Predict the structure.
Amino acid sequence: MAEPNAHLIQALIEARQHHCFPPDVRVAAPDFIQKVLALLFPHFAERLDCSAVAVRSEVAVVEAALTRLLDKLAPRYPGTSSDLPQRFMGQIPDIYAWLMQDAQAIFDADPAARSVDEVILTYPGFYAIAIYRVANALHRLGFPLLPRLLAEVAHQRTGVDVHPGATIGRRFVIDHGTGVVIGESTLIGEGVKLYQGVTLGALQVQKELADKKRHPTIEDEVVVYANATILGGDTVVGRGSIIAGNAFITHSIPPDSLVTRRSEVRSRQKGAEFDELEYHI
């Protein structure tokens, strides 16, 4: 007598053998980022112990957690360097320094913020940036898969979707946060501020363009207001520009411009309109 569902069972067995993936990696990702954030900021720790012994212990715990994750993933990614956890730990001081600048920038930009501690503890934009900084460091080191899992932790918890491959400068501000999308090849300068619903995306999504720059460049001190969309790898928003809410941009914008929803591009310095035939908004 034939086994019920025999074809289904055989197909599932073959699929599991082909995609034999450690089942606890997804669970380990949020646990890992919690350990990193608790190491960097007592705001995320379950208890506060400021002794040197405690700090050394937490450093060792983070490195051990990362080593365990690498041990689980390395068999599926041959050639992965075994010293990645140690190299990541060497970047922790820079990650912390950049995040403190981000937190200060968010505090300076938001009249409702009462302290930097409030920003670190309660602002979803800062939480998403913190996870991005960690994920980006791992991405640049070539750590397999974990950066994307960390990005998804931030996405689920804040509604902010930042690819770990994006390049983002210091003093970065995401205000409110929900719905922000930043693509893999996006380049963001220093002192940039994004509001909720902003998309920095691609004009074309063909698979063969995976290694091309598909996402825009946002130069220093640019402000992009809510629900604006900026698309294309050749699109550059010049330094000091302001992009109004709901603007849709697929062409480059000169520095110090004010882009409104009424398809106008004005110079913030001279008050003159640029040629609207050149700049399609």
